[in-house]
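Tip: read the tokens left to right.
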């Protein structure tokens, strides 16, 4: 059985006070309402990580992750945060290769492969993002593009390391647009990704890797998306900033 995961990517949103309030609401609701077998992860902005981790205390229901990490281990890289720093604060997860980082910060496949290695070396669980822009979907080159993204970021790993990775398929045209992929589109791409993993790492490994869907997941479309055979949960942006909406999405998993 693959792990079901619902993760909230807060992006560059919330004041510190809002982040504390959101965390406290989620702690209460998750404890009362959510089944124990769905993993919940929140990805707040860097400066809040340590405090929110402390706020969660021994609450094992909600894990914390970072939205990015440096490809370097340490040194003169002003403004950067390393995987080792995250590990030293007890952070368990890190998003790598989000389309916004690829687009606005020019992150490329080889760089992302380095970040994956740094995260794994520090015992962090990477959520590796892939997904095509609208032009690629319209040109019907989206499958090839996503396969290339998977190859660039992950195909240097061995099967044991691959089992530690979570993938998020996030079509760029669905992010923050309110335009969600249909269940057919999501399932089709998740299967393409899983088959591509199988071609490299074997069926057993491919069957174990959780593949999350991201892109305008909302309380009213999560259930049908998460019901797809190869969709193992979601990476949620906007709707993860409202505790009630996020909890309803988690309950759909
Ligand atoms: P939205 O849910 O706001 O579309 O964002 C998706 C996303 O980018 C999660 O990483």
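Filled-in amino acids:
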């Amino acid at each position: 059985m693959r792990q079901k995961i619902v993760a909230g990517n807060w992006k560059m949103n919330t004041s510190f006070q809002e982040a504390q309030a959101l965390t406290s609401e989620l702690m209460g609701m998750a404890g009362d309402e959510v089944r124990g077998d769905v993993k919940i992860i929140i990805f707040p902005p860097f400066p809040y990580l340590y405090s929110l981790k402390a706020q969660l205390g021994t609450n094992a229901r909600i894990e914390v992750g970072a939205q990015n990490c440096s490809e370097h281990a340490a040194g003169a890289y002003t403004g950067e945060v390393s995987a080792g720093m995250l590990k030293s604060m007890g952070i368990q997860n890190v998003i790598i290769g989000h389309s916004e980082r690829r687009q606005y910060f020019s992150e490329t496949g080889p760089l992302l492969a380095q970040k994956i290695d740094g995260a794994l070396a520090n015992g962090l669980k990477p959520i590796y993002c892939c997904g095509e822009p609208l032009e690629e979907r319209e040109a019907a080159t989206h499958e090839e593009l996503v396969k290339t993204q998977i190859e660039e970021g992950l195909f240097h790993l061995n099967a044991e390391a691959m089992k530690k990775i979570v993938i998020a398929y996030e079509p760029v045209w669905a992010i923050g647009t309110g335009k969600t992929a249909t269940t057919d589109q999501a399932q089709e791409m998740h299967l393409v990704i899983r088959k591509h993993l199988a071609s490299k790492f074997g069926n057993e490994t491919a069957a174990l890797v959780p593949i999350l869907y991201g892109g305008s997941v909302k309380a009213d479309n999560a259930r049908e998306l998460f019901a797809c055979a190869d969709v193992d949960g979601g990476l949620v942006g906007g709707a993860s900033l409202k505790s009630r909406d996020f909890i309803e999405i988690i309950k759909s998993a």
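The first helix runs from residue 16 to 33. The pocket of 1,3-dihydroxyacetonephosphate is lined by residues 9, 98, 170, 175-176, 214-217, 235-239 (CB under 6 Å).
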